[in-house]
Amino acid sequence: MTQPPDPVQRSIEHAAQIKCTLLIQNQNRQAAFDLPLHHDLIGELALEASSRGQTIAHLIGEILMQVMEKDLVDDILRKAESLPKQPG
């Protein structure tokens, strides 16, 4: 009898399906862009999330909350405005 994969394995198997778009809004400015989550990074996020008993989405949410708490939103918006526009 085959056992179901553990949570880390399930997370890694589904990791290829993850697409994360970051939307940051501050006063009258807004930036939206896809986060480049490569397979290796998704695996690391899955492992870290699993060790904390969280989902990858929840862990990413915590990381983004720390960005806000450390008042890094303006820095991110400035850098996003300087990036070339992506087609599509």
Number of domains: 1
Low-confidence stretches: none
Largest sheet: 2 strands, antiparallel
The proportion of strand residues reads: 5-15%
- Enumerate the strands of the largest sheet in spatial order, edge to edge or round the barrel: 1-2
By secondary-structure content and strand pairing, the structural class works out as: alpha+beta
Morphology call: globular
Q: Name the average pLDDT.
A: 77
Order of helices and strands: HEEHHH
N-end to C-end Cα span? 47 Å
Mind explaining what this structure looks like?
Helix content is 53%, strand content 14%. The chain is globular, with a radius of gyration of 16 Å. A hairpin with a 2-residue loop joins strand 1 and strand 2. It has one domain. The protein is an alpha+beta fold and 88 residues long. The longest helix is centred in the middle third of the chain and has 14 residues. 6% of the residues are buried.
Briefly characterize the structure:
This protein is 53% helix and 14% strand. The protein is α+β, with helices and mostly antiparallel strands and 88 residues long.
